[in-house]
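pasting input
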Amino acid sequence: DTGVSQNPRHKITKRGQNVTFRCDPISEHNRLYWYRQTLGQGPEFLTYFQNEAQLEKSRLLSDRFSAERPKGSFSTLEIQRTEQGDSAMYLCASSFEAPFIYGYTFGSGTRLTVV
Amino acid sequence: TQLLEQSPQFLSIQEGENLTVYCNSSSVFSSLQWYRQEPGEGPVLLVTVVTGGEVKKLKRLTFQFGDARKDSSLHITAAQPGDTGLYLCALPGNQFYFGTGTSLTVIP
């Protein structure tokens, strides 16, 4: 297993366009998390899945943000009608059900720039 | 309101110096984790502390969990340029809160 994989690594888009990011977690992990991070700040939790069930989505930043994990494997994060304020690093992480023991494994992130 | 406050926010030191960064909260936690993040990469787990007063060492890094389990510290001895990065404390859980981060630069 090569760890958590995120694609693309970089995305530049025009304001108003839709973007979709993909995350492939470690195959043995049943939990998957999405975060947003701005420069020099800690990651900000957005949502998480246990298998295919999205167990928390109230922290998604607006109704323009949505995430799916249709078969409990990879996940996608979509941002509709992007705004300049959406420019940030979007991180994905995966874990076993006991993250307080095993921790979280993060991908390298997708850096979004909205122009 | 931040659940976890880290200090200092920025730290720039010379190679060979010692440093301590802090993670504080008004709440009691069952466990806490420390991560390091290098530019352009995701955070990487360094340690998990679970017991009040616990001290863990990882080479030149010493982690301590406060007796009341409301704070933690990370001490680095003889810092090296490879220690440069963003140090994050975090509360493992369903929503997994991160602290505000300490950006460390070690100058050769």
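fyi The interface with chain A takes residues 4, 6, 9, 30-31, 33, 40-45, 48, 50, 86, 88, 90, 92-101, 103 of chain B (CB under 8 Å).
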